[in-house]
Design goal:
The complex is a heterodimer of chains A (508) and B (488). Chain A is mostly helical and 508 residues long. Chain A has a domain at 284-508. Chain A has 20 helices and four strands. The two termini of chain A are 36 Å apart. Chain B has two domains: 1-267, no CATH class; 269-488, no CATH class. Chain B has helices spanning 2-5, 13-31, 40-62, 77-99, 108-127, 131-149, 156-187, 192-201, 204-224, 233-240, 243-268, 274-299, 304-321, 328-359, 370-373, 375-389, 395-409, 413-439, 453-468, 474-482; strands spanning 66-68, 73-75. A two-stranded antiparallel sheet of chain B has the order 1-2. The chains are: A mainly alpha (508), B mainly alpha (488). The interface between A and B is medium-sized, with 34 and 31 residues.
Amino acid sequence: MHGLLSWILWMPIIGMLGVLLIPKEKTSAMKWWSLVNTVITFALTIVLYCNFNQATPGMQEAFNVRIPWIAQFNIFYALGVDGISLPMILLTSLLFMLCILSSWTQIKKSIKGYFALLLLLQSTVFGVFMAMDFFLFYVYWEVMLIPMFFLIGVWGGENREYAAVKFFLYTFFGSLLMLVGIVALYFATGQTENSFNILALQGGHFTKLNLEIFGATVSFSKLFFIFMFVGFAIKVPVFPFHTWLPHAHVQAPTAISVILAGVLLKMGTYGFLRIAFPIFPDSAKYFGPAIAWLGLINVIYGALCAMAQTDVKKLIAYSSVSHMGFVMLGLAAMNVQGMNGAVLQMFNHGTSTAMMFFMIGIIYERSHHRYIVRPDGSRGFGGLYTQLPVYSIIFIIGMFASMGLPGLSGFISEALIFLGIYEKFTTITILALIGLLIGAAYLLWMFKRMFFGDVNPEVKDYTDMTKLEIGYMIPLCITVIVFGIFPAPILNIMKASVGQLVSLLATF
Amino acid sequence: MYLNYLANISRYIPEILLVGLMVGLILIETTYKEDDKNKRYIFIAAIVGLIATFVSLVANLSGKPEAIFSNSMIIDPFSTSMKMIMVLGTLGSYYLSTISKDVYESLKTEFIIMAVGILIGGFILASANNMLMIFIGIETLSILSYVMASLKKNDERSSEAGLKYALYGGISSGLMLFGMSHMFGVLGTIQFSGMAATIATLDKAQMLILMPSFVLFFAGIGYKIAAVPFHMWSPDVYEGSPTPVTTLFAIVPKLAGIAALIRVTMIFFATPGPLRVGWVGLVMVIAALTMTVGNITAIGQKSVKRMLAYSSISHAGIMLAGLVMINEIGIRAVVFYAITYLFMTLVAFYITSIVQDKYGNDHFDRFQGLIYRYPFMAVMMTVVMLSLTGLPPLAGFVGKYNIIVALINSRNFTLAIILVLNSVISAYYYLKIVRLMTLKPQESNEKIEGFGFLNQLIIVAMTVPVLTLGIFWENVMAFAGSAKVFIQ
């Protein structure tokens, strides 16, 4: 089993090399090859899930990989998996597989480059979720920017270049601050040897360390918690670092929006869970209320921004800001319910928001615009419900899952988060509930304007979903419904690891 | 006495080879007729000569460090590795000069000969162990550089570049000489070892008197490595000079200056004291300014060569940042950085030069849609630009990373943060080229003759180190680590 993680990590790279070797004209061969590749990766992650021992907290011995990379500097190619990263790995392999299917007909130019970059992106995302060496983590975190830059920049919408550059610069800025933190941790005293080992760094070894900067004494832990926080917060994105997100989401092609919202945003919160919180538990505790307030701003502000949008993709983009705010609230709670809710919300938001972005991509294929209300004031859509029944039903499932309706996946995670946060911050809980209400409002209002009312003449020409489109929406529908009723398969695998983190935080 | 003087002369073979090569090349050149188009032998001779020099440098590397010529030159692993990088840079600019249209056909041999001269200057500078040798090295470098810059003699900008370079160079050499004479006045010797010994006996007030002369000395070296505020000449010279000359300027004089600065720093400022504090403060401020000014001015540029000039200013700033700790970790990081800088600069200038030859100018727009015509070249340029930005897993990242490690190891967080913020700024203008090449539709379907199979192969071969040094850098790091400065 020791090789399994490496196989999952490198399988997409094998796929990428294959795509590059296929001649330019044979586009369908490339598509099939990519699909087979992602299906194999997905199967491997299922094998990983089946062999995962739910009772063990922390890294699973059976899967650990630790090979020296740059021995001179104690840099290792170290991979591991625990209950926090496994749901993310599952989500990644599922969404990438579906994204290949969704790109099947939607991508028309430079197909070779697109699939190669998409597979490269998949590998780097796996790398972030598996890396147990800080240097390796950083490398994957940064390499991810390269395929993303081109995927948005080449295959995106009209304003794609601006969006790609903004995305790149923002993330690059955050991660470089993180790099300074990584190197500082490497040299920090309190350890036996200089190391990038994430597990060895965890546990709050830096609580008493101070630094002299311009004569002032600064707490090492607090200073570098802030550095890491900014790095991860840009990715989440936490207000006020969110401004890259609407551009990137709107300009990116459908599959990339799905990846961006479904997986990449989770890298930020995963960073908190894996790195910022366990390494600096004292500072995490100290800044807990601030994180909760920022999360609350995300929830309310994101929801209000979403309400004001006339572009349906931008609306969903802002709803991501709002929903990631819930994750931040769950993290700030730092208790069993809140943390479990946060990790579950990371998974559930991944599936539900992916559904929404897929659905928008599907309607865009037919309408070639995304206006709920056109700039001239007329309605962009209307009466979709009578014209496209299958589309409407799947859209409703996705929307209600995203809204957090009981019986669908979003409800359970949000309920857990509220249970957790109520113990700690009562005011914030009440205010966040208002955010939930606004969330329901903007989604329903959008639904009303698009699906009900008079049938727009244009809409009459639209065809309902094709078999392929239904094909890649079904797995997501099943996921949101099954995990809405029976979340145990996901909750059980994370419970032990999250419990360990909570008990670590509780000691500070 | 004479025998004593010539002791260890065998360690001096690379320099002797180069001088012999230069004279030999001049002799070969005279055998050609005035209108002879095919001067292939002189190129072959030059390349063979440089390879021989490189081999003798490699042989020199393993020997124990030694001082020669009555302790006025030092042959140690540090100087030898810097020389190796410089030889590779010169080799790179040689090939570029043969394919470039920027150097007149009739002057190509002159380029080759003068480049050897510049290399000799760089060698002297890297080994110099007294003030006189530093001055001789700088002047050998400079005087030939002035001529090289105006090699395109019918071109106004090239002539301007030569004159500007000469004027700035004259003033800064004067300043440096003034600083040196003042040092001689205070310390009574120009030998580094003697100077350092005398400095150790000085009291605080005397040290303060010495500080201004070190600042003046820095002006001379700072001008060679184009550190802010002595950088004003560099964009104009880089833009005006023929591209192969610019390539040479970006590598040899810059690295030679850094090498001399490192030796001076290690000899005079290794012991704590007011002089060290002053010097470290000076280098820190200059490094921060060099990085920032270089990067910010690069943003607005329209010419790729000019942009690369400013970017090379900022890279000099990063190398200077590796100097402020005055310890081996810093030196190691700088040597590694120099190696990565060599390959990145060569590839960037090769591609720019070939594109410029086709269109007659190097405006950013000429790169538009390159990926649709020459996908390999566009990908290589992208790799190099991202590497210059400092993105893993490319060589430029590891270079910057090592500098950051050195900075943070001695708790210099301020400079580390200035460095990373500068990387973000630089990302903007490096991405500009990437954006134009890959995201924009192509301007025309014209073929660029320069991108023949052989040239593409050479460019790809030079990009390979940029890729591999980002992942497998352990051995090269060990090499850089073994490049220790020897003090005698």
